[in-house]
Amino acid sequence: MAETAAIHDMNKPMLGTLLHQGVLRIVMQRPERMNSLSSEMMAALSAELTQAAENPEVRVILLGAEGKVFCAGHDLKELTAARAEADRGRATYTRIMRQCSDLMQQIVRHPKPVIAVVTGVATAAGCQLVASCDLALATDTATFCTPGVNIGLFCSTPMVALSRNVAPKHAMEMLLTGESIDASTAKEFGLINRIIPRDYLDQVVQKYAETIASKSSQTLKVGKEAFYRQLEMPLSDAYDHAANVMVENMLARDAEEGINAFLQKRKPEWTDG
């Protein structure tokens, strides 16, 4: 995948990608369907993430969308159509919910940092998508909600990602009321990291991502994996795990290079090892 080259795979018309300075931009391109997480969209995103994991040129991933809606969650027309099946859609719903859960976990377990770039509405599983990313940047016009309760369908799977990002009472407020929150409230809740003026979004986001991309990719991989693993552990187990990670990290070539570069007051030369 060549630097600065725009890529549009005709086999994946739902996505557009651009790789520049180690930063891969993935853009959902179905604004007419509100970039909903249809089975096809989820398959396309998963395939792109798999390719990015295997591509050493990709160091950071930006996930954005065209149009006024970042992602409207599951494709309700697709789900409703399945009711005509003999089992009233049970098998289809099981498959789609599993596919969605696998995609969210793929993001969390991805070896590269994944950053959501939200310029519009992120609702239901779309909000889940934002919460599943490692970081999230948004414009001041972005909004977020988990409105399933309004249509008799509690946002149970979005709840998993949401409750791991924001305080329990904030999560329950979003889940029980189904009301939208603005970018400022989302930042206060801890759902997003920064709010960026729309006019400066592209350059600020690129610089932000390039700052992360300039680090050792091996160090980022080790750190990201350790971060999510220790979150689920009791305190003493978390410290034991983190200590073991630190020992192995200290023995890595990039740690040796980084420490030497710091002591010698020079820029490190990463080998990603």
Description:
This protein has 273 residues and is α/β, with parallel strands linked by helices. It has 2 domains: 6-213, 2-enoyl-CoA Hydratase, Chain A, domain 1; 217-263, Orthogonal Bundle (Lyase 2-enoyl-coa Hydratase, Chain  A, domain 2), CATH 1.10.12.10. It has helices at 39-54, 76-81, 90-109, 125-132, 156-163, 168-177, 183-189, 201-213, 217-231, 235-250, 253-263; strands at 6-7, 15-20, 23-28, 60-65, 69-71, 114-118, 121-123, 135-138, 143-145, 181-182, 194-195. A 7-stranded mixed β-sheet has the order 1-2-3-4-6-8-11. The chain has a 4-stranded mixed β-sheet with strand order 5-7-9-10. It is globular and about 65 Å long. The two termini are 21 Å apart. The model is unreliable at 1-10 (pLDDT under 50).
In short:
The chain is α/β, with parallel strands linked by helices and 273 residues long.
